[in-house]
Amino acid sequence: MELPKRKPTRLKGYDYSTPGAYFLTICVKDKKQLLSKIVGDDEGIVPQNNLSEIGLICDRYINNINIKYENVTVDKYVIMPNHIHLIVFLHGTMRASSPTKNIETIIRSFKTMVTKEIGNSIWQRSYHDHIIRGEKDYRKIWEYIDTNPIKWELDCFYNA
Q1: Spatial contact of 37 and 54, defined as CB atoms under 8 Å apart
Q2: What is the number of domains present in the chain?
Q3: Which CATH number belongs to the domain containing residue 60 in this structure?
Q4: Which terminus, N or C, of the chain has the lesser number of Cβ atoms within 10 Å?
Q5: Where is average pLDDT lowest: 87-96, 100-109, 125-134?
Q6: Residues whose CB falls within 8 Å of the CB of residue 143, separated by 6 or more in sequence, listed in order
C-alpha cells in the first residue's frame, strides 16, 4: 500500500534564515488540549486562558528563545489549549562563526526542549508558517493572536 504524499508546507525556494517577520503555529498531536484551558462563563465575563503545567513549560521555553538565539525575537505569542501562535522576527545576519539559525531550527529546538522536560512528545509533525509581508499583514496577525482566546470556540483548532 502506498502512503499518501504530504503536501510541502514551506514556501518553495524561500530561505527561512532571511531576516523578517514570521507567523508560526505549532500544534499538539491529535488536537489534544494539553497546554491551557479557556475558562469563562456566559454572563459576559471575558474568557481567561489558564496555562497547564505543560503550557507553563512551553511559556518558559518561548521566553528563552529571545535569550538563546542572537538576532531572534519572539514579538507576540499565545498558548492555546492545543496549539501555539507566535510572531518571530529574525534580525540581520548571523555571524560567520556561528551556525545559521532559521525558523526550522528554532521550532525544532523548542519542541525538543519541551519534549525532554515532560518526557514524551506531544507535538504534531512540522508546523505552519506564514511570512509576514508588511505592516498591514503584521497588524492583522497581531490582532488575531491577541483575540484568539476570546474566540476559542470559533477557532479552526477547537474541539469540544
Answers
A1: no
A2: 1
A3: 3.30.70.1290
A4: N
A5: 87-96
A6: none
